[in-house]
Amino acid sequence: MQKVVLAYSGGLDTSVAIKWLKETYKIEVIAFCADLGQQEDLEAISEKAQKTGACKVYVEDLREEFVRDFVFPMLRANAIYEGTYLLGTSIARPLIAKKQIEIAKMESAEAVSHGATGKGNDQVRFELTYYALNPSIRVIAPWREWEFDSRNSLIEYAKKHNIPITATKEKPYSTDRNILHISYEGGILEDPWVEPPSDMFTMMVSPEEAQDSPEIIEIEYDEGNPVALNGNKLPPFNLLEELNKIAGRNGIGRVDIVENRFVGMKSRGVYETPAGTVLHIAHRAIESLTLDREELHLKDSWISKYAELVYYGFWFSPERQMLQTAIDYSQRHVKGTVRLKLYKGNCIAIGRKSPLSLYNQDLATFESEKIYNQKDADGFIKLNALRLKAGSLRKI
């Protein structure tokens, strides 16, 4: 091997990985940093990678592509893992890995690498994407090879070799941020009984500290995608960015869960997903108006499977793409506006309207109307009761 493309974040693991890769494999390391809206000084991260030993650094602005081609399709599917997690880290990995493979091709690099641990989900997400897009690529996973057995040992190594890092023994938890969310895990969070420190959070205030009056917002949808916020048409990234501010100041989007990792263990994760939480609720609200009953119920039955595919790393699998095609077909009539009330951690849909609505107020009313013949329900009920009657008459 001559070259390896490393998914580089500037954090502890990948900072150590540059030097370790060079020493272990005697190989040129090309660092790749993806801008997914994590609000970091990417120029400083690029300089740090070069000073740490990278022969070349790519910093790619993937913000619009991330929201448009990865976040929005997932939101159209109402994907939520184990009923709670909105998959903010999971959905970022296939895009990073996809771009890595593209850079490896441009640079004629024989290998790609990442800083994910041998215990986590990210190693699977990265590598399933690598192999799906380039079956012959070689993968180097330092955490599965090197002698370090903890983040503290990485910190010691970094200090010994003058590698600048932000992690400390006193504050060793790991974070991952993009425009959709920020995650916290490890270190002091490994005990699921211990409440996270209040100064840890980044994207939102606590519900207790949120403003004392509710905030009313409107989100407009077209073919299942949010296209306007409070009447202002916005590109996907800018819409998510603005909605993060609004939901964040209202204390919306924080979850603290114990989840089942794909590799088989349980782990505790703390997440902030302000805009994603609001968009999930708003999308369900507009779908309630515009999807046929059986269409909606069938789509809902896919949520768990779709979320698993994203969480496990199968974004580029044929089954995820097949589900996406069906889901996107269902979204052709998902058009309209949702009004929501945001207040101290709560997001409540309080209004919805659509030019393609299936809701008929004249039909649904409890007042006098001449459309629905209530006597028709008698035969409907009796037909549906036939098998229940047969079952109760059967002698065992």
Give your account of this protein's structure.
With 396 residues, the protein is an alpha/beta fold. It folds into two domains: 3-63 and 89-172, Rossmann fold (3-Layer(aba) Sandwich), CATH 3.40.50; 177-353, Argininosuccinate synthetase, chain A, domain 2, CATH 3.90.1260.10. It is 41% helix and 20% strand. The protein has helices spanning 12-25, 42-52, 63-76, 93-107, 122-133, 151-160, 236-249, 274-290, 293-301, 303-312, 318-330, 361-364, 376-393, and strands spanning 3-7, 28-35, 56-61, 111-113, 138-140, 174-177, 182-185, 215-222, 225-229, 232-233, 254-260, 266-272, 336-343, 346-353. The radius of gyration is 25 Å and the shape is elongated.
List keywords for this structure.
single chain; 396 residues; alpha/beta; Rossmann fold; Argininosuccinate synthetase, chain A, domain 2; five-stranded parallel β-sheet; five-stranded antiparallel β-sheet; 13 helices; 41% helix
Layout: helices, strands, pairs:
Layout: E1 3-7, H1 12-25, E2 28-35, H2 42-52, E3 56-61, H3 63-76, H4 93-107, E4 111-113, H5 122-133, E5 138-140, H6 151-160, E6 174-177, E7 182-185, E8 215-222, E9 225-229, E10 232-233, H7 236-249, E11 254-260, E12 266-272, H8 274-290, H9 293-301, H10 303-312, H11 318-330, E13 336-343, E14 346-353, H12 361-364, H13 376-393
Parallel strand pairs: 1-2, 1-4, 2-3, 4-5
Antiparallel strand pairs: 6-7, 7-12, 8-9, 8-13, 9-10, 11-12, 13-14
Helix pairs in contact: 1-6, 4-5, 7-8
